Fold each of these.
Amino acid sequence: MIGLIHPAHAQADAIDTLIKFKNQDSIAQSLKPEELDTFSRWTILNVFEVHEHRERQYKAYPVRPVLDQIFGQGWRAADEIVFSCKDGYQPSIPVAKFLAYDAYLAVASADGSPFILNNTLQNHEVVELGPVYLVWDNLKFPILLEEGAADMPYQIIGIELASFATRFPGMFPPARVSAEVKRGFLHFRKYCMVCHTINGQGGGKAPELNYPISVTEYFKPEYLKRWIDDPASLRYNTPMPALAAAIPEREKVLEEIIAYLTAMQRVKHIPPAKNSKD
């Protein structure tokens, strides 16, 4: 059978391939992956692919020259960079990390094979990586391997300079909390909010955890900890990955995340309406 593509669908697919670079909600550039050539030279990058537990090579563009060209040197004084992905994944990564380590925007597999990976961290799901995939030179900086895949979003369609406090005000813990809760908030920001929301703010890939009922109010403590530690032990075929095994003091990190979630019972907000504007 010969299939015909409706023009509207073709146009939508073309729009989906664009990467929108924003500065505080204002669009600076909208580019197709191949247009990154305008701002930087691509290279073949060898990485340890944490999603597949093996080394791989990608055709990739260094991030810093791209951001310098699009935003000017001012991006280096920004707070965070928020990456929006087709699947709802939305990590907010401190600018300091991009200044300390070498990050790249991968656009293809180096050997010309399909730009996909077998995500062993999410039940061996085969995923498309385009339009672009954020990778780090973790062979040059092995310390990055401790973080697992926390800051490696794929299917990126938006890159935005942002202030965390302005973008995600509903995620901050209440006043006068313990140091444990404050550390838990930082862990949640890094490892959990990329998929989950608190008071409607965060990633859109996984369920809300605080509003209207906190997950800590209906999940027994021992099972909540087990869920973060080893989701597959509670749910067959779950796409939720376990907290990265290489994280230093992992047991303490688990407890501090739960302390933060518990404290957030006191600061429930009505999730803000989603803005449909670009």
Amino acid sequence: MSRYSLSGNLRDAAFQRGADLFGIADASCFLNPGYQGNRPQEIMPEVSSVILLGVSIPRGAFATLPRGRGEYTNTLMAGTATLRIIAFSLARQVEREGYHATIVPTEGSEFGYWYADRETLMADLSLKYAAYHAGLGLFGMHHLLIHPDYGARIRMTGILTDAPLEAGKANPGGFLHPRCAECKKCVDACPAHAISPDGTIDRRACANYMFSELGGLRCGMCIKVCPL
């Protein structure tokens, strides 16, 4: 099966199983000198493609914040569970074609555990960076991916594979969404003061707030106030 037909079959299968977003990034984008995170090549040296899957999170989960953080967190975890089922099905579909595939963790899990290095709080690879290179959206000031239809109200996972798939293309205008430069609503709304006006993120302040102050519940305030 060609890279084009396999890519199309995977896209169709993802949407049929409930995904709202699908994209493919060429794994070589992680070799760019400007990328400062962990690379999928460290996990799967022969990786060729990163398949991105996403679901939109209902607006009602954000409308109840901050009092409804339990409901918000539960809704996020339901999105995570949905993505795991879809990703598992697609990974098996890839392997039936003779390739290898393994599923990348989402941002969190049902048990409040971050799949991240405890010192750097960085994941094994940046799904948002891959999604940007797949053409799924731009970055916001809050360092979240902003999708054209769903804004930052999305949950994503990914699949690493050695299958040579048809990759998307990043927006040629750059990383940052053009409306973010003058907005700064997420900067003002962050209760942990983890987002700086210059666009830097204090990962530890964000993590400490969620796991110390909120007892493992997710915050979501930067997404709630985002007008995109």
